[in-house]
Task: inverse folding
């Protein structure tokens, strides 16, 4: 009986050692620079893709009270004055067109955002991988916001033109400027809408990034799985 018990214990010990070796191997597997960058690129593409799909859908901005773009303070003065003289329908139409423009612009911006993540260095990639929630989105904000804004604004303008916003806005301001005793206004809504759209998109990207970090099921490619498994190992072993 003692002999069989000894054999059983020895077998369990060997199995445990094998399991520990496998776990240790997985934990200590460090992705190459190509794998780390590739995993992040895949994750960001997935985040951008999902974010763009949600925000560019019909009603993506208009039907979401959390991100629906309203008029800025200066333009709101125009809107309030026009509503007071029975032009509320026209004001609502402009706000709807403004959000439809943001929806269209986000869709056209997908390749711009995808291209912006292709030149990350190995050092940056490893830092972002192990940086915790929002690290990738934060990196993108810090390194691409200026360039993205410059590239995004004409897309916003083109989209606003396509959905008829510019014509509606011009008509609205023209009517407002005809009213007595008002200060003539023509605020730059292009810049305003661009910043609102970028903020909404980055917020959605961060949400998607954090889902990938928190839930391995969301890691849809082998590179993502390897890169973020390494990030997980660093998260659990770093004090």
Result:
């Amino acid at each position: 009986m003692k002999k069989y018990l000894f054999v059983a214990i020895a077998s369990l010990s060997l199995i445990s050692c094998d399991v520990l070796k496998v776990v240790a191997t997985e934990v200590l597997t460090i992705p190459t620079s190509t794998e780390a960058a590739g995993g992040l690129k895949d994750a960001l593409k997935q985040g951008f893709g999902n974010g763009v799909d949600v925000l560019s859908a019909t009603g993506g901005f208009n039907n979401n009270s959390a991100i629906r773009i309203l008029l800025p303070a200066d333009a709101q003065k125009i809107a309030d004055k026009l509503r007071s003289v029975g032009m509320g329908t026209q004001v609502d139409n402009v706000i709807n067109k403004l959000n439809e423009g943001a929806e269209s612009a986000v869709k056209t911006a997908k390749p711009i955002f995808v291209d912006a993540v292709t030149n990350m260095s190995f050092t940056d990639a490893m830092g972002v991988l192990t940086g915790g929630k929002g690290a990738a989105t934060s990196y993108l904000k810090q390194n691409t916001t200026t360039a993205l804004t410059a590239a995004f604004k004409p897309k916003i303008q083109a989209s606003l033109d396509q959905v008829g916003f510019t014509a509606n806005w011009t008509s609205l301001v023209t009517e407002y400027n005809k009213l007595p005793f008002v200060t003539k206004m023509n605020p730059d809504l292009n810049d305003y809408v661009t910043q609102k759209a970028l903020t909404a998109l980055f917020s959605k990207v961060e949400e998607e990034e954090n889902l990938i970090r928190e839930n391995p099921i969301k890691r849809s490619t082998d590179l993502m799985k390897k890169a973020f498994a390494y990030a997980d190992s660093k998260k659990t072993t770093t004090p």
About this structure: The CA atoms of residues 66 and 177 lie 31 Å apart. The two ends are 46 Å apart (CA to CA).
